Amino acid sequence: MKALVYQGPGKKEVVEKPIPTIQEPTDVIVKMTKTTICGSDLHILKGDVPTVANGRTLGHEGVGVIAEVGSGVHQFRPGDKVLISCITSCGKCHYCKKSMYSHCENAGWLLGNTIDGTQAEYVRIPYADTSLYHIPDGVDEEALVMLSDILPTGFEVGVLKGQVKPGDTVAIVGAGPVGLATLLTAQFYSPSDIIVIDLDDYRLEVAKKFGATKMINSTDGKAVEKVMALTNGKGVDVAIEAVGIPATFNICQEIVTAGGHIANVGVHGQGVELNLQKLWIHNITLTTGLVDTNTTPMLLKIVESKKLEPKQLITHRFSLNEIMQAYEVFSNASKESALKVILTNP
Ligand SMILES: NC(=O)c1ccc[n+]([C@@H]2O[C@H](COP(=O)([O-])OP(=O)(O)OC[C@H]3O[C@@H](n4cnc5c(N)ncnc54)[C@H](O)[C@@H]3O)[C@@H](O)[C@H]2O)c1
Ligand SMILES: [Zn+2]
Ligand SMILES: [Zn+2]
Question: In Å, how far are 33, 63, 133 from 81, measured between CA atoms?
Answer without folding.
Answer: 9, 7, 9
